[in-house]
């Protein structure tokens, strides 16, 4: 999820006063975020935000609480809120990472999300913060999206990072699916077509086929 979309979600979240008060409490006492984080859904609701596709009110509220943390408290709280949170709380943490001062320190959370079979967590893990993933891990995550039917539109920077090796992986999966009488999603086929038009990908494919 692009960071600008995240900011649109935050700006469009209505507040009856509870969230603003919770932000002030978190700024004063970082440990208070544990209880407040869990209660966001009850106070802010869980409805989709019409101005920010893919965002719900509770996600945006939780991100606002994370942004209210003092910088020194962010790494520890992010780790704990993800590790001990439910799926909705984990997803909010993942979507907030691109706005938080965590450098590459939260990459293990991405690896955890990618290992799960929760498609919502997988999608959230491939937002802007996924730039910190190494290329091997990133390719595997994209391939898992194809395998699980997660729309590739969720993958931030896909066009820039997709390479010959990813094309080969998708081509192999297509061959397996075709042999089983199944087919790849249309967006994966479109990506494969785009990639195989690139000279460097065609060259790599020729080398792979001849070995």
The main sheet comes to: none
Helix content: 55-70%
Parts with pLDDT < 50 across at least 5 consecutive residues: none
What's the number of extended β-strand segments?
A: 0
Distance between the termini: 39 Å
Question: What is the alpha-carbon Rg in Å?
Answer: 19 Å
Report the order of strands and helices.
HHHHHHHHHHHHH
Estimate the strand proportion: under 5%
Which word captures the global form? elongated
The number of helical segments is 13
Structural class, judged by helices and strands? Answer: mainly alpha
Overall structural domain count: 1
Mean pLDDT: 90
Q: Would you mind describing this structure in some detail?
A:
By secondary structure, the protein is mainly alpha-helical. The chain has one domain (3-161). Helix content is 65%, strand content 0%. It has 13 helices and no strands. It has helices at 3-11, 18-28, 33-44, 57-68, 74-84, 87-96, 107-115, 119-125, 135-148, 158-161, 164-179, 186-196, 199-210. Helix 5 runs antiparallel to helix 6 and helix 7 (107-115) packs antiparallel against helix 8. The radius of gyration is 19 Å and the shape is elongated.
């Amino acid at each position: 999820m692009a960071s600008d979309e995240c900011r649109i979600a935050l700006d469009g979240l209505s507040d009856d006063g509870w969230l603003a008060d919770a932000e002030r409490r978190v700024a004063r006492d970082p440990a208070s975020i544990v209880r407040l984080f869990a209660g966001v859904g009850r106070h802010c609701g869980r409805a989709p935000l019409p101005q920010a596709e893919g965002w719900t009110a509770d996600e945006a509220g939780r991100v606002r609480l994370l942004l209210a943390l003092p910088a020194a408290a962010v790494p520890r709280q992010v780790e704990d809120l993800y590790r001990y949170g439910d799926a909705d709380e984990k997803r909010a943490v993942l979507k907030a990472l691109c706005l938080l001062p965590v450098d590459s320190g939260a990459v293990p959370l991405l690896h955890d999300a990618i290992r799960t079979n929760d498609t919502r967590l997988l999608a959230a893990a491939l937002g802007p913060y996924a730039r910190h993933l190494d290329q091997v891990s990133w390719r595997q995550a994209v391939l898992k999206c194809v395998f699980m039917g997660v729309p590739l539109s969720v993958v931030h920077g896909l066009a820039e990072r997709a390479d010959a090796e990813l094309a080969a992986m998708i081509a192999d999966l297509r061959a397996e699916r075709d042999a089983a009488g199944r087919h790849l999603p249309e967006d994966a086929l479109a990506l494969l077509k785009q990639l195989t038009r690139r000279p460097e990908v065609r060259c790599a494919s020729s080398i792979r086929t001849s070995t």
